[in-house]
Specification:
It contains 20 helices and 8 strands. The protein is an alpha/beta fold. Bound molecules: flavin-adenine dinucleotide. This is Proline dehydrogenase.
């Protein structure tokens, strides 16, 4: 599809040629779960019910430690593997990840691998240069695995993976850079072009606002980022950089912009490094419009993962503590309106600029997904072109399956790794996404409905 797209004349003609004849609204109820095994459905229902129980999420880490002491690590590990870990994580070894991805592929879904890493600012072991170098090796292995996983390897296929910048750069440095990026006059010393030049040449970059240790760490971080991007480009894997806290995001965006100047030139074949935009922030719509226009003016391809945002509670707590303005939208409805406006902006960009502009609609929200598919059809954007969808592994499978069956490109964000590495990450994510986990009632209803149908009506799984 992508090689076809690049061969046609105008961006719009490129897209219209691949359109289905008419648009059908997606039906999320219509038996999406019939493709899944009864065991998987039962586990999903049980785990989602457990995760919607606030004490379990609040005291998750303490409960895990307690169960390990009481039951021993073997039994407690087995329980976790059969429940939360089994539901949200692909596994530990490349073979386990491969099996999970093969199963997703039979359902029409694609992998978006994510290496779960959590920096602990107070731990010397998890902030030293050796820790970031270890993460670099994990990222490079993740690129290889992402490349190997899709059935048809090669540049025509879109292999994607998530990249967490703070796995390769310390949050302390990101906070420092953020404070400088926000000041007027910092733009020349900390320009994306200057950072890109340092990445490419490997020459030592001296930034006057940083001390010697910080400059050393910046150089090492730039070199790690360069190695991941270079390897990902060589293996045809696109990097989707995660957005984190507002205290870090300006620095992360600066680093993404530096990578973009090197790797997002259209002759490289579309954007290889994408940024993530969080619709719950007050300034996101304006920033997204500005960045899209700037990329276009600079002759660069532009890739966006659009999310609502995962750090609401902490953002508000920090603003309260510091007595600063809350950077987030005042309520859920305002975030929804912002998401729809950002979606409209990006779909118009895709329709205007064709395959040099890519978008992942990363949401479990049925209304947002429905709106995206409707506007794609109205704007002449094909289902399996520069716009794709993303949901988390083990969450809202009814949305992913409905999209996949209708021919859209759907990715499941897949964390993988050992129990010890992944459980703290999962529990922290669950704490940040409390409202989402409590809101998956509809998924629970659909799971119950399908299980009841199988038990009472004698209905069975539909095999692919
Ligand atoms: C593939 C993928 C990648 C992701 N990557 C990132 C990432 O890089 N960075 C990141 O931050 N998140 C990321 N997320 C998580 C994402 O931001 C959301 O937390 C999650 O997807 C829930 O939003 P939703 O659109 O799916 O659903 P919904 O359940 O409809 O929305 C829930 C979201 O609405 C917002 N919200 C809820 N209550 C309020 C309120 N009172 N006021 C204002 N806003 C409110 C919050 O953002 C909340 O997460 C990713 C998600 C996916 C699927």
């Amino acid at each position: 599809i992508f090689s076809n797209l690049f061969n046609k004349t105008t961006p719009q003609a490129q897209l219209v040629n691949l359109l289905p004849p008419n648009w059908q609204p997606l039906n999320f109820d219509e038996g999406a779960f019939r493709l899944k095994g009864t065991g998987e459905l039962t586990r999903a229902l049980l785990v989602l019910r457990l995760c919607a129980w606030p004490p379990l999420v609040t005291h998750g880490l303490a409960l895990q430690a307690w169960s390990q002491r009481l039951l021993g690590s073997r039994i407690s590990g087995a329980l976790l593997r059969a429940s939360i870990y089994g539901q949200f994580v692909a596994g530990e070894t490349a073979e386990e990840v491969r099996r999970c991805v093969q199963q997703l592929q039979t359902l029409g879904l694609r992998p978006l691998l994510a290496v779960p890493t959590e920096e602990e600012p107070d731990s010397a072991a998890k902030t030293g240069e050796a820790w970031y170098e270890g993460n670099l090796r994990a990222m490079l292995r993740c690129v290889d695995l992402s490349r190997d996983l899709l059935e048809t390897p090669g540049p025509a296929r879109n292999n994607l993976m998530q990249l967490k910048m703070t796995a390769l750069t310390s949050t302390r440095l990101c906070k420092e850079l953020t404070s400088w990026v926000r000041r007027p006059g910092a733009s020349l010393e900390l320009s994306p072009e200057r950072l890109a030049e340092a990445m490419d040449s490997g020459r030592n970059l001296q930034v006057s606002c940083l001390n010697a240790e910080q400059n050393g760490h910046l150089q090492a971080a730039l070199s790690r980022l360069h190695r991941v991007a270079q390897h990902a480009r060589a293996q045809h894997v696109r990097l989707l950089v995660d957005a984190e806290y507002t205290s870090l995001n300006p620095a992360l965006s600066l680093l993404v912009a530096a990578l973009a100047t090197r790797w997002n030139s259209p002759r490289e074949g579309g954007p290889w490094v994408w940024n993530t935009y969080q619709a719950y922030l007050k300034d996101t719509h304006e920033r997204l419009g500005r960045d899209a226009e700037a990329a276009h003016r600079a002759g660069l391809a532009f890739g966006v993962k659009l999310v609502r945002g995962a750090y609401l509670v902490k953002e508000r707590a920090v603003a309260r503590l510091q007595g600063t303005e809350d950077p987030t939208r005042p309520d859920y409805e305002a975030t929804n309106r912002s998401y729809s406006r950002c979606l409209e902006l990006m779909l118009n960009q895709v329709s205007r600029h064709g395959p040099t502009c890519h978008l992942m609609v990363a949401s479990h929200n049925e209304e947002s997904v429905r709106l995206a598919t409707k506007r794609m059809w109205e704007l002449g954007i094909p289902p399996d072109g520069p716009v794709c969808f993303g949901q988390l592994l083990g969450m809202c499978d009814h949305v992913s399956l409905a999209l996949g069956q209708a021919g859209y490109a759907v990715y499941k964000s897949i964390p993988y790794g050992s129990l010890e590495e992944v459980i703290p990450y999962l529990i922290r994510r669950a704490q940040e996404n409390r409202s989402v986990l409590q809101g998956v009632r509809r998924e629970q209803e659909l799971l119950t409905q399908e299980l009841r149908r199988r038990l009472l009506g004698g209905g069975r799984r539909v095999r692919h």
